[in-house]
Amino acid sequence: MDGVPESSTPVAEESAAETGGTASELRRVAVELAERAAAHVRARRPEVFGPAGAVTDGAVRAKGHATDPVTVVDTESEELIRALLAERRPGDPIVGEEGGGSMTVDDDAVHWVVDPIDGTVNFLYGVPGYAVSVAAMRHGRSVAGAVVDVARAVTYSAGLDLGATATAADGTVEQLRCNPVEDLSMSLVATGFAYGAHRRARQAEMVGRVLPRIRDIRRFGAASLDLCNVAAGRVDAYYEHGLHAWDWGAGALIAAEAGARLTLPPATASGAAGDLVVAAAPGIARELGELLAEVGATEPIPDR
Is the confidence at residue 104, as pLDDT, over 90? Predict the structure, then answer.
């Protein structure tokens, strides 16, 4: 994508042969894990967050920043995924938002990168915009992934060179393709904001410079779903600073397999470094890249 740092890492460059022909199987496992965890999250929300905004004691705590919550259901969801992986893929390394883990890129191991609830603030408030994201990565690149929109019970999934789909609760399957938009000024662009005040202020400043040059801005609050929305044509592009691999691992592959142009940091990069993530419909990718470079968005925004 023009206007972005040359160090940006593509979602996946290996052919299906180079991934051992396992993309289809890994996709199946990713879908199973994400759907099982999403069902748990869906069932647990009314138990933990009762009527009139009541919250079970000890159900929510802060991490990193005071405004960044983690709930008991986040932890339960990741524990469920880890237990299922121990049965389905024993020995595979796991990197989870809550349980940690380390990523290596110099061996052939499949690493499972897990966000047990992406969009925890939405989950906390009952806003229908949170997901479970599971990606299988090899050499730091996504080979397969699934993102389940918990509230809508829609499963987005992709495998390297296998395309991307959305499967509704009734089993209807939609092949995903980005919008054929060609004019940035007519594009709908999604973004997100960090929890740290420094980065958030800088992001807001950039939005003020981007907004006059596009159709409009949307902020949904879950990076994995933002990337799936690019794939499904609900938005034309998405950009955000400071994501971790578990935020983009599955969604970025889904967007790429739907035709999006991607800019990603290395999978081993910390979100604290503040690198830029971009997914854009191909017809506006160059123009958006130039605009983001113009407003300084291609530079990292470290957390402070």
Answer: no
